Amino acid sequence: MGPCRLTDETQKGVCGASRDLVAARNLLRMVAAGTASHCGHAQHILDFTGGVLPAGHIPEGGPGSQFLEISEALHQTSMGVGADPAELLKRCLKLSALDGLCGLSLATSLEDGHFGKPAAKKGKLNLSCLKTGQVNIAIHGHEPLLVEALAREAARHRDVNLVGVCCTGASLLSTLGVPLAAAFTLQEDVVATGIVEALVVDSQCIMPSLPDLCECFHTRLITTSELARLPGALHLPARSRREAASMARKAVEAARRNKKNRSAGAEKEFNDRVEKAKEAVVGFCEDNINVERIAGRLRTGALKGIIGAVGCVNPRAEAAGWIDAFRELSADHVILTTGCMAFELGRRGLLDGERIFHMGSCVNNARIAAAFRRLADLSGRKMAEMPFLVSCPMPITEKSVSIGLFFATLGCDVHFGAPFPINPHTGAAGTLAALLGKEFASTAMFESSPAAFLRTLRSPAT
Ligand code: BF8
Hints:
By secondary structure, the protein is an alpha/beta fold. The chain has three domains: 19-115, Substrate Binding Domain Of Dnak, Chain:A, Domain 2, CATH 1.20.1270.30; 121-273, Rossmann fold (3-Layer(aba) Sandwich), CATH 3.40.50.2030; 281-458, Rossmann fold (3-Layer(aba) Sandwich). It has helices spanning 19-48, 65-76, 85-115, 147-155, 166-176, 187-192, 210-216, 241-258, 266-273, 291-300, 319-329, 339-346, 365-379, 398-410, 427-440, 450-458; strands at 121-125, 135-141, 160-165, 180-182, 198-201, 220-223, 234-235, 278-282, 305-309, 333-337, 356-358, 388-392, 413-416, 444-446. Helix 15 links the parallel strand 13 (413-416) and strand 14 (444-446). Helix 3 packs across helix 15 (427-440) and helix 4 crosses helix 8.
């Protein structure tokens, strides 16, 4: 009796669960967690900004019904409830669509209401955004609502340098032009520079290693979300504008007081080892990429398609190979990118705002969806008839799985690299493919090799 890990097609668990049932159940649990993360994120921003839903964001079942859907999915996947793989997979797709509406799109609309729509601008990426001569504060996580207060407070002090990490960082880079020091895999390196006085985290993709790591350096770790408390951290809640303003003041004070604790030699070591900052063009959204020109180039065949390069970067995968693949594809494709993939492209100097466009954080994948919609409308075609592909080559988190399937429910073809969210050799994967084809005219590709991915895209049939 458990854990449910069936490896053979003919094998069944003691309870009678087949491999397909286990695979479908696991996928639904992943999608439920991803959807919960994005919808929870959007709800936190909604609460922070006063609870007024922007137009077009009421799910069919009324405000808040997305949380009931998530709960129902978890109920359906618990022991002895849903036993029909097809039904579980249908719910995966329903939840993924809800993730798009009540997670990604709602969070992005609320961010835009708070910061305004992003404008194209030059930005800087990588660890060199930290400054030895200043008090460095890094902000990390996914809910940038509190950052405006911290950015404003930091700007009042000439000795304070604010940088971003992960998706809070990607969002800040797009909206306020705050330099982006690192993405998920490099978050520990930010602390390990030895020149960061405070690391302020909100929620999601925050490594549990940070408290131990901060103890090895002088970095003050500050949490702001009740959900993402860390042992030993200073907790300064930021659930409202008032709390955020107070948190910002206290965080800046704590960081300034802490600078004297930098270890001798840390600055020299940093200056000796750090790479030069990479310049990037950032701040794109559906309003400021030239969709008319892109649609025209698609019509003439100068462009073969548009690729959303999204999701995580997994140190166990061939990240450089994927970056090279997207670089090569950018010769005749437009690449729209978000989250950790965007950082990875940026730190190689590829975010040029001509062929590869930085569209923000992972919830800002709503901007890619909106750009796809505009391009389809301009071309007078359905989304599924357009040469759109969303590629998530190294999915670590459940969030990247629900994002990928959200695009599939829009009619876009989707690619997942390893670790695959579902074993492509199971009947459940076949059922998922059939559902996508029948209901949304989309396909899902599972490919862990950048070279094979390129070959598939370059083959005449695609
Ligand atoms: O939401 S790409 S590792 S940072 S989950 Fe996390 Fe994956 Fe990075 Fe942002 Ni998105």
